[in-house]
Specification:
With about 270 residues, the chain is an alpha/beta fold. Helix content is about 45%, strand content about 20%. It folds into 2 domains: about 150 residues, Rossmann fold (3-Layer(aba) Sandwich); about 110 residues, Rossmann fold (3-Layer(aba) Sandwich). The protein has 11 helices and 10 strands. Helix 2 packs across helix 3.
């Protein structure tokens, strides 16, 4: 049994936590949302790196055995510094452009991500390694994260904004769309309304949790004899709203976990 920390700028990382609860149910979890400062995608690289390291250090101090940086922007800007600073397993997330390049049939791939992710050295270095026959249509999803944070992922407002962002990708004839922000899987219904069922949506949460599982197996922590586990939601803004969003957005069963909430400012 391990204590797993999952960190995101807001509720987007719930897509990772949801998958982790399915694959690794017999573990304790802390989900830390920096909702008071979301979205990260429009902030400076220096701010993102410093804030992400500080919050991951908070998770380390809470006793976490592994941390998932469940934010594409924070991964792009801060993962190297976090790994150098913390002596535990740190797993990041990145847009699934590599599997998209392997799965596309017509060679046209849309990438919906934050501005910071699309401009990051990490993303562009990965892009440079992919086959030249693939055409990547990159689009920043400005304004989408605040709507998801406000519980409006399926609202007419989100659908209208999403339609604007997906216009170039749709016009290009992309058969594959990379959801390059952990918030964006919660827009699946809206994306399907706009692009139909045939487009292939790439979400890397399953692969991220498989990597986490592999890291934990090497630590050989046993949960034998335990029937109950803890799931703590920590927010820098409103922990009760975070819990409500988790209940609404996640499909996994939380009944085997003792659920509690804390405000970030009370954590030392």
């Amino acid at each position: 049994m391990a204590l797993i920390g999952v960190f995101d700028s807001g509720v987007g990382g719930l897509s990772i936590l949801d998958e982790a609860l399915r694959q690794l149910p017999q573990n304790d979890f802390i989900y830390l949302a920096d909702s008071a400062n979301a979205p990260y995608g429009e902030k400076s690289s220096e701010w993102i790196a410093a804030r992400s390291l500080a919050l991951c250090t908070q998770l380390l101090n809470q006793g976490c055995d592994a941390i998932v940086v469940a934010c594409n922007t924070a991964t792009a800007e801060a993962i190297q510094k976090i790994r150098e600073s913390l002596a535990i397993s740190v797993i990041g997330v990145e847009p699934g452009i590599k599997p998209a390049a392997m799965q596309t049939k017509n060679g046209i791939v849309g990438v919906l991500a934050t501005e910071a992710t699309l401009k990051s050295d990490k993303f562009n270095a990965l892009l440079a390694t992919l086959p030249s026959h693939c055409q990547f249509i990159k689009q920043a999803g400005a304004g989408l994260v605040p709507l998801i944070e406000a519980g409006k992922a399926d609202s007419p407002e989100a659908l209208e904004l999403l339609a604007q962002h997906l216009e170039l990708i749709q016009d290009a004839g992309a058969d594959t769309l990379v959801l390059g922000c952990t918030h964006y899987p919660f827009l699946r219904n809206a994306i399907r309304k706009l692009l139909g069922e045939s487009i292939n949506l790439i979400d890397t949460s399953e692969a991220v949790v498989r990597q986490l599982k592999s890291q934990l197996e090497s630590q050989e922590k046993s949960s034998q004899g335990r029937s109950s586990f803890t799931l703590t939601f920590i927010s820098s803004k409103d922990e009760l709203s975070l819990l409500c969003m988790a209940t609404e957005l996640m499909a996994s069963d939380m009944s085997s976990h003792q659920v509690q909430t804390k405000r970030l400012s009370s954590i030392r």
